[in-house]
Fold this protein.
Amino acid sequence: MTIQHSILLASGSPRRRELLQRLAVTFRVEPADIDETRAVGEDPEDYVRRMAREKAQVGFKRAKNATPTLGSDTIVLLDGDILGKPGSQSEAETMLQRLSGRTHNVCTAVALVLGADNMLETLNITAVTFGVMPNNWIENYCQSDEPMDKAGAYAVQGGAGQYVSRIEGSYSGVMGLPLYETASLLRKAGLLV
């Protein structure tokens, strides 16, 4: 199965590239550099949706409004707090200590810009439960590069996956691009068979 047209992926994430390849979609990558500051009082779900939309819109403009553009954003949500990408090893350790032995939500928004006033979007929310992660394991894990560019300081497909005891929802959504929802958007736009 292949698409009729190429799309632009407005993300530098190697995980999103890998996942999009699974859909047999022809695409090129051009990361969108946007201000990712959360507005005061902005609801986490509204925030992640806005980030996906803005990435897709920036990519679409860079493509001279001629290429359908896919943008995506992922957040980890625990106790109403967004756990973003850690800024330091100690911040990564703190995040993982908070997640240890608990359930949190991973929210991944996907936006597909087809024209100046034509956008499709979706939101996937997946509940992820961690077993207890020993502090010495957390410290060792955080000494690697793996947690540093990941929301919530972990990669479900990486070392932290050994402590995931339950996932209710989309595994690919936790990785950064929910395949079912993304394929549905592409099909609705007539870009995927």
Summary: The chain has a mean pLDDT of 94. The first helix runs from residue 14 to 22.
